[in-house]
Structure to design on (653 residues):
């Protein structure tokens, strides 16, 4: 990673809530036009990380330390008024449930125009024309006739397209997509993610894709950062990651998933469990994954293993799995049979 | 041998304003003893309504439901009671289905009391046993639902269904709200319980990969109808309905070198419109004039494989 080329760089970000720290010293960067997937289970801090970049944390949360810079601008140093000029114009956010992000009593055309007129000096009429173009861009059929529709007139997939149209209206350099297709059906999911991918190429936009679905990551991201209990535990390019995930948690996540490319059936194949739950990470002095880890050693419980760069953009926070050279690494069982807490 | 559950030409209708929504529109299938039947489809296709209709939680408009040879379609509450014990349900959101003011002991004990099963000592023994069997710590009985994680709550939901020793459990999206690592724990538990108690499952999910893994036989539902049914291996090797093919094609592979094609179908399931001909024709890449006028019936293709497509 060359620091000068990064569009967004997050450096040792920690975010605290009263009583606990949701994100611990997370560092990552995104290059222009790149899709980085941030992956982990609910409560791991991935959405809090995204909200920190938008400076939209809930009132009881605060950035305890770290730096977030977008094209060289220190976002954490901006005033709220300055930040409002950044949101929507240079970085945008789309969320899981478009119905709760859209205003139910305003037409979609008006909501898109509002974004444009917030950031650019254009007439109502010109903004409306741009809104039609944007609806067209996100493949809403018959855009000119749909522009006066209200959110409730649209299906879930169409609403998410409207959200995307609003998010890209001012051609931001970075789009943060927080579980953008989790509420959608699988056939709609593919359409929406293809649309996002197409837009990032056409608009030269980078995407921070937050998801729990490794299939989505494999198909639509360039790089992955895996988070567990507030810490990034592995970062890698997509192909090396899926060829050989290195952190025991990454391996566990892939093993627990039903492989869609193989004829796996319960009669002959038992899914790999990660025993216990993320709740066991609370109060750990060492590695937070230690209570669930199949290859845990005594040292793991003493100090938090640092995210160690291994070259080629890969970094892993596990001294146990990275101490053995890749070629000689034995395959190990991911969990004891039926072990659970 | 009679099947455990037999559903014949079942219809369920909802009034939506002045219109009638045919949520389940003529569905027939069977579930054998100890068999797992998967029911897959997109949101709004009627799969949950079908599950609830079978359990008599939603009234049916036409057709029949037979459990263990007994027609339960029109039984009154008291006549229905002994049959309710035989078929139980597990929900997507176990928290929403647990009373937050009741301890787990009360939740489970109530189920036994309602069905007048055992005296106090016998019931207590069953509670302790079931809690251990679903993998919860022994002190769980005196705790409240909010003290448990999502995966543990689903174990409580499973315990509540299991404690009545049912023959059939309808599982409605039992792992959809759970993280991947917890999903595997719950699916493995359901497999173990099935083997141990000879349970039959009707497993409802929107996720074809999970359904195909978990079911012996799969029913694919679209807009109130079954459009394809086959054993899990047949469906995997030889899906015949364009909708089933599209569902498979849309599953994202965890192999980045496996390049996805164009999404095979466009648009979304719309349930408010009246359609003539095949319900899928407006989204089907291979639709012809015949599909627009003539509705295909679910026809046999051999070896228990059925599909409702003129060109299957």
């Amino acid at each position: 990673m060359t620091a000068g080329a990064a569009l967004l760089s997050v450096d040792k970000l920690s975010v605290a809530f009263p009583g606990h720290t949701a994100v611990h010293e997370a560092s990552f960067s995104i290059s222009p036009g790149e899709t980085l997937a941030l992956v982990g289970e609910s409560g791991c801090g991935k959405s809090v990380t995204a909200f920190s970049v938008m400076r939209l944390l809930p009132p009881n949360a605060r950035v305890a330390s770290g730096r977030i810079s977008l094209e060289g601008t220190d976002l954490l140093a901006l005033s709220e008024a300055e930040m409002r000029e950044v949101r929507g114009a240079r970085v945008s956010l789309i969320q899981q449930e478009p119905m709760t992000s859209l205003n139910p009593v305003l037409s979609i055309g008006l909501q898109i125009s509002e974004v444009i007129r917030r950031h650019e000096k254009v007439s109502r009429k010109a903004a409306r024309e741009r809104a039609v173009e944007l609806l067209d861009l996100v493949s809403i059929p018959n855009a000119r006739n749909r522009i006066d529709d209200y959110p409730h007139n649209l299906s879930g997939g169409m609403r998410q397209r409207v959200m995307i149209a609003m998010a890209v209206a001012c051609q931001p350099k970075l789009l943060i997509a927080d579980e953008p297709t989790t509420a959608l059906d699988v056939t709609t999911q593919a359409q929406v993610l293809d649309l996002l991918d197409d837009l990032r190429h056409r608009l030269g936009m980078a995407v921070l894709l937050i998801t729990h679905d490794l299939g989505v990551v494999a198909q639509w991201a360039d790089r992955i950062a895996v988070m567990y209990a507030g810490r990034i535990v592995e970062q890698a390019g997509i192909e090396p990651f899926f060829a050989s995930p290195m952190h025991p948690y990454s391996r566990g996540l892939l093993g627990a998933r039903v492989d869609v490319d193989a004829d796996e059936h319960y009669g002959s194949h038992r899914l790999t469990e990660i025993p216990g739950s993320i709740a066991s990470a609370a109060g750990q002095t060492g590695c937070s994954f230690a209570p669930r880890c199949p290859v845990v050693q005594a040292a793991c419980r003493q100090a938090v293993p640092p995210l160690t760069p291994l070259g080629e953009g890969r970094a892993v926070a596990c001294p146990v799995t990275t101490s053995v050279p890749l070629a000689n690494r034995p395959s190990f069982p991911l969990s004891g049979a039926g072990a659970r807490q | 041998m009679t099947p455990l559950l037999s559903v014949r030409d079942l219809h369920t209708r909802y009034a939506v304003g002045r219109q009638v929504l045919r949520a389940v529109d003529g569905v027939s299938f069977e579930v054998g003893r100890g068999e797992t039947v998967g029911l897959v489809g997109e949101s709004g296709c009627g799969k949950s309504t079908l599950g609830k209709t079978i359990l008599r939680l939603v009234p049916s408009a036409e057709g029949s439901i037979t459990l263990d040879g007994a027609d339960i379609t029109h039984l009154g509450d008291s006549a229905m009671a002994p049959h309710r014990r035989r078929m139980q349900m597990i929900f997507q959101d176990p928290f929403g289905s647990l009373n937050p003011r009741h301890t787990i002991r009360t939740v489970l004990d109530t189920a036994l009391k309602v069905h007048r099963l055992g005296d106090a000592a016998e019931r207590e023994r069953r509670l302790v046993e079931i809690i251990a069997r679903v993998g919860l710590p022994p002190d769980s009985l005196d705790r409240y639902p909010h003290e448990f994680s999502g995966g543990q709550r689903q174990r409580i939901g499973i315990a509540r269904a299991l404690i009545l020793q049912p023959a059939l459990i309808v599982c409605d999206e039992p792992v959809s709200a759970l993280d991947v690592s917890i999903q595997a724990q719950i699916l493995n538990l359901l497999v173990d319980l099935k083997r141990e108690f000879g349970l039959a499952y009707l497993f409802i999910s929107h996720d074809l990969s999970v359904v195909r893994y978990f079911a012996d036989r799969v029913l694919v539902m679209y807009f109130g109808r079954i459009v394809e049914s086959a054993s899990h291996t047949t469906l995997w090797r030889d899906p015949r309905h364009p909708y089933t093919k599209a569902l498979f094609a849309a599953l994202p592979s965890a192999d980045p070198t496996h390049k996805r094609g164009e999404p095979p179908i466009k648009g979304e399931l719309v349930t408010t419109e009246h359609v003539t001909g095949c319900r899928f024709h407006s989204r089907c890449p291979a639709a012809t004039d015949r599909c627009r006028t003539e509705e295909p019936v679910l026809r046999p293709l051999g070896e228990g494989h059925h599909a409702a497509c003129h060109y299957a």
Observations:
- The first strand of chain A starts at residue 8 and ends at 17.
- Residues 4 and 122 of chain A are 34 Å apart (CA to CA).
